[in-house]
Amino acid sequence: MSRIGRMPVVIPKGVEVEVQGSFVRVKGPKGEMSRTFPASMSVEVNDGKIEVKRPSDERTQRALHGMTRALIYNMVYGVSTGFERVLEINGVGYRAEIDRDNLVLYVGYSHPVIMEPPKGIKFEVDTKTRQIKVLGYDKEQVGQMAANIRQVRPPEPYKGKGIKYLEEKIRRKAGKTGKA
């Protein structure tokens, strides 16, 4: 059996889960999410736990089993605790600020780059450490928004300037050497 798929998802306090066939709706203090899963997977709620079961041991069914359980866990965790992704800005004169809800990036272009957050996403900027936090209850949206911000000015390998994930290591290259 799938190691991930067979683990039950514990429902924390303050989170409501509604299952109708292959449709799952999760509501919590951070927000509400709903998703339709493959009809072959059976999702059941038993005494505060969500269990996902598969019909057979075929390769595709095993893959869907683990994926379905992981997506349900991310939904439950997101509406109860929330997800965050931290980005770091490196470079002289590079900075970020928040204007209303929008993120404004000054990263070496002739104009500021304005990023509007989709519904359910929030930005936080720390000007001292030059970090941007992308917060939200949907893991996919948080990751995609962080990737879009990084794409504005990806880190370059010679000086390390650009926007990178906090845990990301930039492989540095040696520049040209002059003739002696």
Notes on the protein architecture:
This protein is of the alpha+beta class. It has 2 domains: 9-80, Outer Surface Protein A, domain 3; 83-165, Outer Surface Protein A, domain 3 (Alpha-Beta Complex), CATH 3.90.930.12. It is 20% helix and 36% strand. It contains 2 helices and 13 strands, in the order ββββββαββββββαβ. It has helices at residues 59-80, 139-152, and strands at residues 9-10, 16-20, 23-27, 32-36, 42-46, 49-53, 83-90, 95-99, 102-106, 113-115, 121-126, 131-136, 162-165. The strands form 4 sheets. It has a 4-stranded antiparallel beta sheet with strand order 11-12-7-13, with helices on one face. The chain is elongated and about 70 Å long. The model has no long low-confidence stretch (mean pLDDT 93).
Mean of residue pLDDT?
A: 93
For the largest sheet, list the strands in their spatial order: 11-12-7-13
Order of helices and strands: EEEEEEHEEEEEEHE
Helix and strand composition category: alpha+beta
Low-confidence stretches: none
Structure summarized in a few sentences:
This protein has two helices and 13 strands, in the order ββββββαββββββαβ.
